[in-house]
Write a structure and sequence with these properties.
The complex is a heterodimer of chains A (95) and B (484).
Chain A lengths: L4 H10 L6 H22 L19 E2 L9 H5 L5 E2 L2 E5 L4
Antiparallel strand pairs in A: 2-3
Chain B lengths: L2 E12 L24 H4 L8 E2 H13 L7 E2 L2 E4 L9 E4 L9 E6 L5 E13 L3 E3 L6 E5 L6 E7 L6 H18 L11 E11 L9 E6 L2 H20 L8 E5 L4 E4 L12 E2 L6 E2 L2 H9 L5 H10 L5 H8 L2 H14 L2 H19 L10 H12 L5 H12 L6 H8 L7 H14 L1 H9 L2 H18 L6 H15 L1
Classes of the chains: A mainly alpha (95), B alpha+beta (484).
Chain lengths: 95, 484
Amino acid sequence: MALEHTDVLRAAHLARLGLNDDEARHYLEDLGRILSMVDDLQALDTRGVAPLAHPLDATQRLRADEVTETDRREQFQRCAPAVENGLYLVPRVVE
Amino acid sequence: MEWETVIGLEVHVQLATRSKIFSGASTAFGAAPNSQACAVDLGLPGVLPVLNEAAVAMAVQFGLAIHAEIPEISVFDRKNYFYPDLPKGYQTSQMHHPIVGAGEVEIGLDDGSTKRIRVHHAHLEEDAGKSLHEDFHGMTGVDLNRAGTPLLEIVSEPDMRSAKEAAAYLKAIHSIVTYLGISDGNMAEGSMRCDVNVSMRPIGQAEFGTRAEIKNVNSFRFVERAIAFEMERQVELLEDGGTVVQETRLFDPDRDETRSMRTKEQANDYRYFPCPDLLPVVLDQAYVDHLRAALPELPADKRARFQGELGLSAYDAGVLSASREMAEYFEAVKEVCGDAKQAANWVQGELSGALNRKGLAIVDSPVSARQLGELIQRVMDETISGKAAKEVFQALWNGQGESADAIIEAKGLKQVTDSGAIEAMIDQVISDSPAQVAQYRDAEPDKRGKMIGYFVGQVMKASRGTANPQQVNQLLKEKLDALC
């Protein structure tokens, strides 16, 4: 799959990364090489191979449904830029 | 042109776990802002999610209740988007391998028939926090207490064909999750929320029309209203030669309309990928079987049993099985009085009427199932008349006695079946009413049947409602006819 310059800009936008044109060209090349490796992988015959969701051959450990956390709001909010009435304040967002 | 409506629902059910889906923070409703948002919920660096066993069990129970496949392996994915109430920048959800596969839900329709609505799948995910936009000097306030609360998203196939069917489906889901006890089903507190997909097509056309997705539909009533508005909007558009745009619309209950939400730039590119922090969930057969064995009787089965085994009408069976509390109350009354039809009549009639007038739920009924059952027993063994029974019910409702028997005793409502006592009252009434007796005597024999009503009324009044009406009727007829 050939990657276009606009694909890189779009991906950057979705990830909220600010790229200048030089950087975008650089990533176009890097990502292009990764994708060509993926193309190689896709050429392999994988019939009969179960899809892998995780590289570790292990399954999810489950936790008992118990409340183990206490209220540590004050501590957490010390590193927040702005708080009020217990709320984290962020630049206004309205959909 | 005749149009057909095609509706599919995505229902988000908040699971009734004590702690969050991936952390040990509490899920209790109404706590002070951010007092229940821990490091995992805040997405602080270095934290790892650990899946809550109860959330898995509840999802599987739901799957079993709708006769769905439960795949051995399910996988969590990341759904990526940026919004301040989603601190990690992604929602942990399930895209390709959900915990519950295809199943079906039976809905009851107004005419007493049932219809099966297919469920495409149901998956586990975490809820986001809450943004508050007012009063923060132009800033937005974020409360992350809700972040990480477990949700089960139940996605139906586009199998519904009217607003009524959609509401019936939502009610069926509500019944199932509350019967199972996996959610409190409280729509006002957001424990159940629903997105509705609506499209129109000419009747007979196989392909679906373009659909609009309506968000913010948070009550049974709103589902019907939102769909009714949307149907009208789309038909108008199509009949004017326009086209429906695939978009997300917001239902505004105050104006009773749906409005287009500003489409976010490059929306719906969530770049799902398997969450590297969570391993695949593997459910072995023994675990699933264990959950299956512990399932309670579900609403559809109860409805069928009420109708088949107990001989109730489709309507009664539907109403009495709609909520677990109602069904349990009814069955307790039936146990005590021993007659399902009488129990159904009283629960649906006198009791429901009184509850509705006071706006009370069945669990808040001042009359217990035992008290009502014993009252019905006294009607059935003819200790009291139907009329006296209503008086006893009212007294129980008002807390004027511990039991039906105590009230019957205190108020002297015991039905008189001693024919000697009844005859004495009849003789008294006859001798007090010479004019009516003369009229009766002069009337054509086929008109006399109606005229006897006056005498019955007088005797019942004299007995203060305690005389057995059949007996009164019988004896009166004999005595009056002897005078003719």
